[in-house]
């Protein structure tokens, strides 16, 4: 049953998605904190807290928390706090003291938070909303009391893993025998198309790797470049490899990007084992008795955005509606039932939410006449905090409006709206923009980036008079004003492309354009524009003799839709876009 409760605690935690921890031994110790008969608990109470935590950092408070009866421990006492700089960090949390770090006798607060999330996601501990505390569950106590490295421990751990929906999603994606990279899994994991569930476009990544000659730079790309869903995919797959449900095998990936083939080997790639296939059969069980029940949490239904609580509640209600129905429900049925809960949403938004629930690992089937759930979901709570539950952000409103306008390109591209306003996601934004320009607009192109290069270039190939575009993407939270320094940077790129003097720039980035292209433009792409940016566009054009444009992300998406639907041609796009002003489409 899904219960709706009023909660007094205004602090909302983020549960359900885990990126960092992978050590099962440490996980077991963290769960053992909550069992006052365990060796780990008694070591903490009698030795570790006194040894590792100074009195000034709350030693007495942590010991009092461990001595509480019943044993329910506050989040802040478990995780502790951070220090600046990190190198000066002292131990001030129970989980910090429980797990030994690589260089210190304890771990930091961020790693501690991830261990708590992990234990919670697997159902070993449960959260109490009103008191912001955790306590052990029955399955958690069995896990702690099982003998290390025993069959019993392995069975409990596997059962807990299968109850975690994202594990079910990863196993299901691999169940047909496919060999998938973390990027291919990440692209289909979670609520695709929004912040918090980002995945690097594989075709752009492989092209970038294949055209990067410097081994050190290539290794850095493979190590550091991934989206949040790619990280979740890698972490979950790593757990399943340890349990014998998957194997990790490098994969040679060949992609077609703009009509050209590129190949590169990705190390984080996975295949399912026979044991994994048996687990999938249990997940899909022929009846409720045989089926593994899944742990779903309200918090896992959205992770970012100022309106994430509203989005979580909306999706939780959709799940509640599906669970409580014994029949197939149409989108109109679901819309009507949501309205009874004072949630007014469009059909397109509801459909995207259901697809997100499926991608999270919940077994919802699209039947001929609607949707039906084929999963057993354990009880969970929808907390009513009474603060911002019904308030949508401007970004959500924009995406809602676009859902009704876009039918010829994937709604996955709606993530560009989140990315365009997040300055921390610059690289992913530029890669997704290049993917859209090549895959949906039909250009050929390259993602460049790096020192003394534009973010990318694209060019047409099907016209009598083909043209090229120098692309610069800018992710800014409050709009982009095109400052003089960045206009000057674009001016340098335009001149380098015109003069093509390798003594001026030895990397010769302009050689990525086809030799047949003789006409060029420049474009700035951002979430929105402000200030005197059009003056800068005109100045740039006057000093270089090359026309340009500013395109916000909404018009970029609408342009792709119009090209894909046949409503606009590339020639018409060229005439409308490059007039040294902002490119705006009516919708």
What is the beta-strand fraction? 5-15%
Assign the CATH class of the largest domain. Answer: Alpha Beta
Counting helices, strands and paired strands, the structural category is alpha/beta
The Cα radius of gyration reads 26 Å
Q: Summarize the main sheet.
A: 6 strands, mixed
Corresponding CATH architecture of the largest domain: 3-Layer(aba) Sandwich
With strands numbered from the N-terminus, the spatial order across the biggest sheet is 13-14-15-16-17-18
Number of strands: 18
CATH topology grouping of the largest domain: Restriction Endonuclease
State the separation between the terminal residues, measured CA to CA.
42 Å
Shape: globular
Mean pLDDT: 94
Low-confidence runs of at least 5 consecutive residues: none
Count of spatially separate domains = 4
Helix content: 40-55%
Number of helices: 24
Walk me through what this model shows.
The protein is globular, with a radius of gyration of 26 Å. The strands form 6 sheets. It has a 6-stranded mixed sheet with strand order 13-14-15-16-17-18, with helices on both faces. The mean pLDDT is 94. The chain is an alpha/beta fold. 43% of the residues lie in helices and 14% in strands. It is built from 24 helices and 18 strands. The chain has 4 domains: 7-147, FokI Restriction Endonuclease, Chain A, domain 1 (Alpha-Beta Complex); 163-283, FokI Restriction Endonuclease, Chain A, domain 1 (Alpha-Beta Complex); 298-392, Winged helix-like DNA-binding domain superfamily/Winged helix DNA-binding domain (Arc Repressor Mutant, subunit A, Orthogonal Bundle), CATH 1.10.10; 426-582, Restriction Endonuclease.
